[in-house]
From TrEMBL:
The name this protein goes by in its record: Ribosome biogenesis GTPase A
Domain G, chain residue ranges per copy: 125-184
Keyword Disulfide bond: no
Transmembrane segments: none
Highest taxon above the source species: Bacteria
Lineage of origin: Bacteria, Bacillati, Cyanobacteriota, Cyanophyceae, Chroococcidiopsidales
Length: 285
């Protein structure tokens, strides 16, 4: 049996209220999702927050998925009439395009202002998304200097702050938001695997077991997307093993059976990219 992943709705409600207030001032919303799990990192309140503002959909951590999977997502979103921008906020790949889109939206706004006899002003954009998806790293890249603190620890962006990223764009760095309720436990587990769930409480062992099961499933059903076995680095004959069997075996081999420790290390290895590119979600058919 899996314990449910838990977090603190009171805390979230407060953060959401502050965010909704700031978003009233915004012209463009940069919705940042995790390219490894673009569906699980969709926040259900985004459409309401966006209203009739311009929304730019960003799948960050593109370096963490195989290029073929990037193509599949691009296509999937396109058939839904959506343009997605893939970024690697760590090395800056794709970030210039996001800035251009925001600036174009600003130009349109200023044209409308001009038509009404108003002065031009910088466009106001906000980056929103789950904790740890890379909002601060993205803003740092847009700034080309390190101003916003970007840390591996989820939930680190505590305050809302505005930064001027060009003479035409101001950007709000918002804290990570997770829904007050996550109906879908499978999505919640993926958020935990990717560390995109802030300070929610979960059991690393259960999460790592499901992670290994997902890997095995991916290798069996989509071997072309997983040419290298991510588990081979652990030097265990993992063929056909369940998640439980694998964690147990690895733990006996190097952590004297401390399952929790082994599980944590597996998750850390994955998050650091040591296990290679793993698409934890694929576009639904
Ligand atoms: N490999 C890789 N790492 C990234 C990328 N984007 C961000 N990171 C790293 O992921 C970690 C979290 O990034 P942040 O920018 O702090 O995430 P955030 O969304 O602002 O997080 P919160 O403040 O918790 O909401 C940092 O260690 C970043 O360097 C990316 O595209 N690729």
């Amino acid at each position: 049996m899996t314990n449910e992943i838990q977090w603190y709705p009171g805390h979230i409600a407060k953060a959401e209220k502050a965010l909704a207030e700031q978003l009233k001032l915004v012209d463009v919303v940069l919705e940042v999702r995790d390219a490894r799990i673009p569906l699980a990192t969709h926040h259900p309140r985004v459409p309401e927050w966006v209203g009739n503002k311009t929304r730019v959909l960003i799948l960050n951590r593109v370096d963490a998925i195989p290029p073929a999977v990037r193509q599949l997502w691009q296509q999937w979103f396109k058939t839904r009439g959506e343009t997605v921008y893939f970024t690697n906020a760590k090395d800056g790949n794709g970030v210039g395009q996001v800035l251009q889109v925001a600036q174009r939206a600003g130009d349109e706004i200023n044209q409308r202002r001009k038509n009404r006899g108003l002065l031009a002003r910088p466009v106001r954009a906000a980056a929103i998304g789950f904790p740890n998806v890379g909002k601060s790293a993205l803003i740092n890249r847009l700034l080309k200097r390190r101003i916003v603190v970007s840390e591996a620890r989820p939930g680190v962006t505590r305050q809302l702050r505005w930064v001027r990223i060009s003479d035409r764009v101001e950007l709000l760095d918002a804290p990570g938001v997770i829904p007050t309720k996550l109906e879908d436990q499978a999505a919640a587990i993926k958020l935990a695997i990717c560390d995109d769930i802030g300070d929610a409480a979960y059991d690393s062992y259960q999460v790592a077991v499901i992670f290994i099961d997902l890997l095995q499933d991916l290798m069996a059903t989509a071997p072309e997307l997983m040419p290298d076995n991510p588990l081979s680095r652990y030097k265990i004959d993992s063929l056909g093993m369940t998640g439980e069997e694998f964690v147990y075996e690895l733990s006996a081999k190097r952590d004297r059976g401390d399952l929790e420790r082994t599980a944590r290390q597996i998750l850390i290895d994955f998050r650091k990219g040591i296990l290679g590119t793993v698409p934890l979600e694929l576009p639904p058919n």
